[in-house]
Amino acid sequence: xxxxxxxxxxxxxxxxxxxxxxxxxxxxxxxxxxxxxxxxxxxxxxxxxxxxxxxxxxxxxxxxxxxxxxxxxxxxxxxxxxxxxxxxxxxxxxxxxxxxxxxxxxxxxxxxxxxxxxxxxxxxxxxxxxxxxxxxxxxxxxxxxxxxxxxxxxxxxxx
Amino acid sequence: xxxxxxxxxxxxxxxxxxxxxxxxxxxxxxxxxxxxxxxxxxxxxxxxxxxxxxxxxxxxxxxxxxxxxxxxxxxxxxxxxxxxxxxxxxxxxxxxxxxxxxxxxxxxxxxxxxxxxxxxxxxxxxxxxxxxxxxxxxxxxxxxxxxxxxxxxxxxxxxxxxxxxxxxxxxxxxxxxxxxxxxxxx
Lengths: 159, 186
Known about the structure:
The complex is a heterodimer of chains A (about 160) and B (about 190). Chain A is α/β, with parallel strands linked by helices and about 160 residues long.
């Protein structure tokens, strides 16, 4: 009969768990690489439409966001109930000047060779009126920001 | 072989048990403050800004007039239609290649014109825009399969030159005009 050596109950774990922090750090680096820090708190209701003919946005570093919707919660008291535009963290009112300067600032923040490829992603709430979106588009044309992305979420072929 | 014996002095043991906790905390922090949603949307290239655009006159057959109103009703060339009909009609119109007299002669000339009210819901406009894009995608895919044996999506990963030729054959030509009238009732 072979000798069976039983270890006395010392409580030392068989599996070396010293590698666990390494695994977690790898996961952490993964998350850091694939996600963006959410820099903007939405002050407006922003449910974007669902559609089928969508494409992924490549190179998110070149994408700047314009949010459109009705002010949410507390901000209703300050800004009212009409559709508003949010650029970064602020709700803006004077359209023409603001969008122009927004485009200029964001463009200047990009490296020179990439400025032509700057994309503006319009995240518009489903219930917003088309009028304000049209105005934004016209201002973007004036500011020579011609590459747009109309943000939407995918859906199946459902009517 | 002399087996390794622990020296008399006990090794200084850094309690590495809490390393995992620190790592978990950092990870949780990152998950909470970041967003992972994949950015998707419809790409649009706006026309350059012209201060005083001269209206271009086109033969009626090259234009597909789509009227929309705030009650989310649609007229395609004056005929009341549902959203479902738009894609089919647009495909027939754009891909006509001169066959039917009432539709376009060439996809490079065909224009879809959207006219509507500024009071319309964005979602309605978006679904209309989606259908028009779906029509173009179907036409482009059919052409790409015919010419190269692959759909446009497949070509995008392999051959950008061929993608360009497909897109040039069926360029998205769209004109939008949204005005103040709240109701379009004709």
